[in-house]
Design brief:
Blueprint lengths: L1 E8 L4 H14 L2 E7 L4 E6 L5 H9 L4 E9 L12
Antiparallel strand pairs: 1-3, 1-4, 2-3
Length: 85
């Protein structure tokens, strides 16, 4: 699994988050996508790396500006009552 984090300018509300999330879901086979307009971020979980240029283009087609894209390996943590895996 891969966690991809995008910094996005221009999201101002929950509807903006939905536009970005829907565009990503329509274009890529993702497990999960969440956007946070207050933080200006979108987080994506996918089975494999996504094409960063295509990802940027898809988001920017919705009217927002992608300023950075980062990816890192993601491993789902174990459940723990103490908040640690």
């Amino acid at each position: 699994m891969v966690k991809i984090t995008m910094d996005i300018d221009g999201m101002a509300c929950g509807m903006c988050e939905a536009h970005v999330n829907d565009a990503v879901r329509r274009t890529f086979p993702v497990k999960k996508v969440r956007s946070f307009h207050a933080k200006g971020k979108t987080e994506i979980l996918a089975e494999q790396e996504l094409d960063a240029d295509r990802l940027k283009a898809v988001v920017e087609e919705t009217g927002y500006r992608v300023t950075a894209i980062r990816s890192e390996p993601y491993e789902k943590g174990r459940f723990s009552l103490f908040g640690r895996s």
